[in-house]
Amino acid sequence: MQGKFRVWCVNKKEWESDPCLLSPDGVLFHQTRNGFWTPLRPETHKVVWATGHVEGKERIEVYENDICQGNWPYATLCIVAWDKARCGFYLQPLDGPWKRAAYDKGYKLNGNRFKVIGNALENPDLVQAG
User: Fold this and answer.
1) Domains of the chain (ranges plus CATH)?
2) Is the torsion defined by CA of 103, 122, 19, 114 positive or negative?
3) Tell me: the pLDDT tens digits for 3-13?
């Protein structure tokens, strides 16, 4: 089973609008307007994984690098990040006393109420604001 993802085009600074697929060996392809599948370079296209978590009444899907706002004890602004050691997504604080603390893995995605206010790739200024 393959997870859900979207693709960020680094050069255009926008989400890829053409259909994309990820091969079993990790190569990213997109379908051209002519119907051909061509590979995309990892330097120019970034895969952003869905977390599987859906938030709010609007049922917004939460993706890696999303910026979230909430009322946590030690932060009000967090970024969704992947913890390779624990094999799971978490909310890394961008403000407050735990800001980017290397020793802390932040807050769990599940069980916390928050609002997605943007994505760090689309809005890098949101990360700087934290």
Assistant:
1) 5-47 (no CATH), 51-129 (2.30.30.290)
2) positive
3) 688 999 999 99
